[in-house]
Design goal:
InterPro entries: GH (IPR017853), GH13_cat_dom (IPR006047), Glyco_hydro_b (IPR013780), O16G_dom_2 (IPR045857). This is Alpha-glucosidase. Belongs to the glycosyl hydrolase 13 family. The longest helix is centred in the middle third of the chain and has 17 residues. The radius of gyration is 24 Å and the shape is globular. The protein has 16 helices and 20 strands. Strand 5 and strand 6 form a beta hairpin. The chain starts with 11 loop residues before the first strand and ends with a strand. The chain has 569 residues and is of the alpha/beta class. The strands form five sheets. The protein has an eight-stranded parallel β-sheet, with helices on one face. Helix 5 runs parallel beside helix 7 and helix 11 packs parallel to helix 15. 27% of the residues lie in helices and 15% in strands. It has four domains: 347 residues, TIM Barrel (Alpha-Beta Barrel); 59 residues, Oligo-1,6-glucosidase, Domain 2 (Oligo-1,6-glucosidase, domain 2), CATH 3.90.400.10; 35 residues; 72 residues, Sandwich (Immunoglobulin-like). The protein binds 1-O-alpha-D-glucopyranosyl-D-fructose. 1-O-alpha-D-glucopyranosyl-D-fructose binds next to loops.
């Protein structure tokens, strides 16, 4: 039998460096700050650090707009500090995964500058340049080459006055899309990746990697998407998500970059819009593409018809049906990654839990238990391990993220009510995840000695790492126990998954089995008690392996947000 890969037992921790820890007092987190906090990560027990981008960047999208792939932005430190970070992690038995953002560069990257310089530039074809729509004057409303909307509001095409042509940017206009159809582009990306691996990093989290293959005709034409009601745009997804050459490109990348290197590496593709069927292909080891992908289904269930800024309540039945399908779909082939939070999502305890003082600790622990006991590799986003919550924004001026800022501007311009716009931003903004990590109860939560670039959550006096470090009942201690359990118990890492009580409106329950061994997980996903009654007879008499409420009751009554991991008698 083949030995299971190391990452089936691993837990990954994401650092968003701008908001993690500031070592030089400029109010922006940096590599020095990450290095100072490495013991926090080893105490927590995580195996891998995924570092969001630290490369030179104009910071239009907080570093996801890269102007040099092979250096570190002075804002964050230096290449020497990056080397020191790798060394510090390796010395503690952890690995470093870098963010790889190659669907697009910054418009200030020399490749784009050269591409833009002239239609005859040898790099013109490294990006997506297209003339205005046939029969229309460049710059006229609706003359964009296709009807796609950008992720950050407005059309996905920007007119370059000098040449009269448009370039494609699925994200901000300062993030032009690279043309992966051009083999020179792909080889330049692979060479850059090899350079980082040779330097000692242990893998990549690949930003929107399933968008790199667009559906393009042999003559170079791209297609409009079907109209999106209530907007002037068409749906770009069928034209850009998991395009015709995506598996070819990832297999090529694997051959060119990863083949022949040792098995200590980790690759995870960020793949919005991916289906279970696509994910099986991406993560089937026999196909050699990537180890796992981030899917977005469970974090879209509370989006209304108007998208993420039009939220609706989450239905637990939908959540269970979704996770259940992903667990089943990748049971025999492929692998799941498991997450609630990252730098793009509102805080899980506020979104899926209950962040009122009464239930915050318990719901944060319950959600963590639920996630970490699934089959797959769990990802913990900075601050999640202490139950950090959404920020109580009271004004749009407090928001910095380009996605929220652009969306709010457009909504207000279209006549939306200001209070409603603020409420949507408060609920859904990515800045909820980007407020500084709360290290202690001191000024600016110990994040910086200067003025933080984004305000610290006022709840930091009560909710911080220092207050939780030695408290066995804390959210932090609970995460430590969950991580240890995954390391030590093969049922957690490798056991099969069976959903139980799929129709129960408040209980999330499942079984994990490996050989003769079995774990039963029962979670009360609600702020009122619930009695399991006759629903799961195995609960009575089962031994508690790990729970949110100890000492546990061995009856069938679950307290609000109580989660139990049980070993049936
Ligand atoms: O995100 C891609 C993505 O699909 C979304 O999560 C998106 O950012 C947005 O939140 C949609 O509502 C990745 C990065 O994680 C994100 O921070 C970047 O802004 C984006 O790509 C562009 O690089």
């Amino acid at each position: 039998t083949v030995q299971a890969p190391w990452w089936t037992r691993a837990v990954v921790y994401q650092v968003y460096p701008r908001s993690f820890a500031d070592s030089d007092g400029d109010g922006i987190g940096d590599l020095g700050g990450v290095i100072e906090k490495l013991d926090h990560l080893s105490d927590l027990g995580v195996d891998v650090l995924w570092l969001s981008p630290v490369y030179p960047s104009p910071q239009d999208d907080n570093g996801y707009d890269i102007s040099d792939y092979q250096d570190v932005d002075p804002l964050f430190g230096s290449l020497e500090q990056l080397d020191a970070l790798v060394e510090g992690l390796h010395a503690r038995g952890m690995r470093l995964v870098m963010d790889l953002v190659v669907n697009h560069t910054s418009d200030e990257h020399p490749w784009f500058q050269e591409s833009r310089s002239s239609p005859d530039s040898p790099k013109r074809d490294w990006y997506w340049w297209r003339p205005a729509r046939e029969g229309m004057a460049a710059g006229a409303p609706g003359a964009e080459p296709t009807n796609w909307e950008s992720f950050f509001s407005g059309p996905a095409w920007e007119l370059d006055e000098a040449s009269g042509e448009y370039y494609l940017h699925l994200f901000s206009r300062k993030q032009p899309d690279l043309n992966w159809e051009n083999p020179e582009v792909r080889q330049a990306v692979y060479a850059m990746m090899r350079w980082w691996l040779d330097r000692g990093v242990d893998g990549f989290r690949m930003d929107v990697i399933n968008l790199v293959s667009k559906r393009v005709e042999p003559d170079g034409s791209l297609h409009d998407g079907p109209p999106v009601p209530g907007t002037p745009y068409g749906d770009r997804s069928p034209e850009t998500v998991c395009g015709p050459r995506i598996h070819e490109f990832l297999a090529e990348m694997h051959r060119e970059v990863f083949a022949g290197r040792d098995g200590g590496l980790l690759t995870v593709g960020e793949t919005p819009g991916v289906t279970v069927e696509d994910a099986r292909l991406f993560t089937d080891p026999a196909r050699a593409e990537v180890d796992m992908v981030f899917q977005f289904e469970h974090v879209s269930l509370d989006h209304g018809p108007g998208g993420k800024f039009d939220p609706r309540p989450l239905s637990l039945l939908d959540l269970k049906a979704s996770f259940g399908r992903w667990q089943a779909g990748l049971a025999d082939v492929g692998w799941n990654s498991l997450y609630w939070d990252n730098h793009d999502q509102p805080r899980a305890v506020s979104r899926f839990g209950d962040d009122s003082p009464e239930h915050r600790r318990d719901s944060a622990c319950c959600l963590a238990t639920l996630l970490h006991l699934h089959r797959g590799t769990p990802y913990v986003y900075q601050g999640e391990e202490i139950g950090m919550a959404n920020y109580p924004f009271t004004s749009l001026d407090q928001v910095a993220d380009i996605e929220s800022v652009n969306w709010a501007r457009e909504a207000l311009a279209a006549g939306a009510d200001e209070a409603a716009v603020l409420a949507a931003v408060r609920h859904s903004s990515r800045d909820n995840a980007r407020t500084p990590v709360q290290w202690d109860a001191g000024p600016h939560a110990g994040f910086t000695s200067g003025t933080p670039w984004l305000a610290v959550n006022p709840d930091s006096t009560g909710w911080n790492v220092a207050a939780q470090r030695d408290d066995e009942r804390s959210v932090l201690a609970h995460h430590r126990r969950l991580i240890t359990l995954r390391h030590e118990d093969p049922v957690v890492s490798l056991g099969s998954f069976t959903m139980l009580l799929p129709e129960h409106e408040q209980v999330y329950a499942f079984r994990r089995s490996l050989g003769d061994d079995e774990l039963l997980v029962v979670c009360n996903v609600g702020s009122t008690p619930v009695d399991l009654g006759e629903g799961l007879p195995e609960v009575a008499g089962a031994a508690l392996v790990l729970g949110t409420h100890e000492p546990a009751d061995d009856g069938t009554l679950l307290r609000p947000w109580e989660a139990r991991v049980l070993r049936p008698a």
